[in-house]
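Hi everyone,

Forwarding the result from last night's run.
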Amino acid sequence: MGDLTANISRSELKCKCGKCGFDTVDWETLEVVQDCADHFAEQLGVERVVVNVNSAARCLEYNRSIGSTDGSQHTKARAIDFTINDVKPADVYAYLCRKYPDRYGLGSYATFTHADSRSGPPARW
């Protein structure tokens, strides 16, 4: 059970470097992920799905150590990479693209989905 939303707790948002304590994510990003969780809970006929946060806030040092760019939305506390148990990442991505066709950064990966609340035009990959 989450303490920020029904599915997400602050501890899941922490930078994985283990040193910096960066654990903030933009509220709008949290709302997008929670909306997705609520949608699939309803679709699966369950009260709540399990959301697994793979990566959220990243300090610049950690972000560089994993080979990501300095402009990553993760370093701006605006991105979450996540999975939903029993839902394919491609289905999560497809839902988000349908729901938010003109907003956000949305990325489809084999094992997770990326969502961010970037400023400016939407991005898809």
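The chain has a mean pLDDT of 96.

Cheers,
N.
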